[in-house]
Design brief:
This protein has 285 residues and is mostly helical. 69% of the residues lie in helices and 1% in strands. It has 13 helices and 2 strands, in the order ββααααααααααααα. A two-stranded antiparallel sheet has the order 1-2. A hairpin with a 5-residue loop joins β1 and β2. α1 crosses α6, α2 runs parallel beside α6 and α3 packs antiparallel against α6. The longest helix is centred in the middle third of the chain and has 30 residues. It is elongated and about 60 Å long. It starts with 8 loop residues before the first strand and ends with a helix.
Length: 285
């Protein structure tokens, strides 16, 4: 009977790992373990920076309260305007907080942390996976907080738990897409002081949407632009799933909002995920 042999597999920095009998399954196990280690690192940063975490949670809450009680978002929509505004704010929340992720990436780049990780025998993509996993966990917390505040100001969903979970899934899909845009732009910017300039790009996407007002209330050309905004697609789709008024205009984009709420994020991920991974792979060359 012949003895089983194993082949050492070099790590990214020249270290070796021995896959053993598991082969591919062992490599997958390493990838998951390394990614979880990086995720725990990012979560540990939360514990050391509670004020920053609270500010990120509080900012969209303050916007929701301001537009509910002061500015008057959702006016002109049949029924309770908060039922139009809150789903839109949930979609807009998925664009907020990206600066924290971008700052973390640029700070790691500036301090040489990522170079040190790349020199270790670990799966190269674990750094990005850990960063994105931590961001998605924070997004779940943000959605929970915003949902609770929305419920407190009078918003309700009407289509049952399954539809509500589908709406949450679309919101997190949009966040995942926005996240990879942020990670790529952070590596392109390279320095923390550049993040503020890049973060400004979030505002046109957020406010040129149907988050606060219906496209029907806008000039014709502007309403057409707004309806094709990826955030508008998600906002309209989650309103439909929650059973809230959507201010439908009868356009193709409005009638197929749930389809667009999937296609837009998938297209964004298809572009920016490989760009981010490729940029990360070239950082130390």
């Amino acid at each position: 009977m012949s003895a089983a042999t194993t082949t050492a597999v070099p790590g990214p920095g020249g270290g070796e790992r021995v896959p053993g009998p598991g082969g591919v399954s062992s490599r997958l196990g390493w990838a998951l373990a390394d990614s979880w280690t990086m995720t725990r690192r990012e979560l540990a940063h939360w514990a050391r920076q509670p004020v920053a975490v609270l500010v990120n949670l509080a900012f969209p809450v303050m916007l929701l309260l301001m537009f509910t009680y002061l500015v008057g978002g959702g006016r002109g929509v049949p029924g309770d305007p908060t039922e139009y505004l809150v789903p839109g704010m949930l979609a807009l929340t998925m664009a907020f907080g990206l600066e924290a992720t971008m700052l973390a990436v640029t700070q790691d780049l500036g301090k040489g942390v990522i170079d040190r990780f790349r020199s270790m025998p670990m799966v190269p993509g674990a750094v990005l996976v850990g960063r994105s996993a931590a961001d998605m966990l924070q997004s779940v917390v943000s959605l929970a907080v915003m949902t609770g505040v929305g419920y407190a100001v009078g918003w309700r969903w009407h289509n049952g738990a399954a539809a509500a979970l589908g709406a949450v899934g679309l919101l997190l899909l949009l966040r995942f897409a926005m996240l990879w845009v942020g990670i790529h732009l952070a590596m392109v910017a390279g320095r923390p002081e550049m993040v503020a300039a890049v973060q400004i790009l979030v505002w046109p996407v957020g406010f040129l949407s149907n988050v606060f007002a219906t496209p029907a209330s806008m000039p014709g050309w502007l309403g057409a632009v707004v309806e094709w905004n990826p955030m508008s697609a998600t906002a309209t789709a989650v309103r439909e799933l929650f059973g809230n008024p959507g201010g439908a205009t009868g356009s193709w984009a409005a009638e197929h909002a749930q389809l667009l709420a999937v296609l837009w994020p998938v297209a964004i991920i298809a572009v920016f995920f490989p760009l981010a991974v490729g940029k990360f792979a070239r950082l130390s060359r």
